[in-house]
Amino acid sequence: MSTFDGRVALVTGAGSGIGAAIAADLAAKGAKVVVTDIDPGAAQRMVDGITGAGGEAAAFQQDASRPEESEAAVRFAVDTFGALHHAVNNAGIGPKQAPVGEIDLADWERVIGLNLSGVLTGCATRSPSSSPRTTRRSPRS
Ligand SMILES: NC(=O)c1ccc[n+]([C@@H]2O[C@H](COP(=O)([O-])OP(=O)(O)OC[C@H]3O[C@@H](n4cnc5c(N)ncnc54)[C@H](O)[C@@H]3O)[C@@H](O)[C@H]2O)c1
Fold first, then answer.
1. What distance in angstroms lies between residue 93's CA and the mean position of ligand 1's atoms?
2. Which label site among 104, 118, 126, 141 has the fewest CB atoms less than 10 Å from its CB?
3. What is the residue with the minimal CA distance to atom 22 of ligand 1?
4. For all residues of the chain together, what is the average pLDDT?
5. Is 2.40.30.170 the CATH number for 8-125?
6. d(CA 21, CA 114)
């Protein structure tokens, strides 16, 4: 019996690259995997590969930089597989390469929004009880 038998895992940005490798590995070890990606075709192809290999998976389109879509992904996991035990906030992008004085700030904000804020809101919406919730400000802030 594998450590992941009967467990449900959600992996963001799992349509390709590092996330796809993590999703395939978790499925091979017995987890039911929610494959999320901003590209729904990539997510579905990944799911087809996992199910074709005898695993269990479901695709969900999600922009991991958007908190409301993180909540929707958690709801999808719970609705589809009955729980959420593991979350891998993997989705990440790199900035356009440019000399520091020529960096496009809108592009920079996009990278920060996904690679940093997306991880924060992803963690916040994936509480141990798997109940979707939003990031709350402390009463003093
Ligand atoms: N620091 C390092 O050593 C190192 C090494 C490898 C990769 N990386 C970085 O890790 C990141 C991922 O690498 P990869 O090779 O897996 O890339 P990849 O492009 O193969 O995969 C990224 C996946 O994330 C998805 N995605 C993009 N934006 C998204 C969003 N807003 N919400 C949800 N999904 C989104 C893409 O559709 C794609 O399927 C990249 O930013 C890369 O630069 C860093």
1. 5
2. 141
3. 13
4. 90
5. no
6. 20
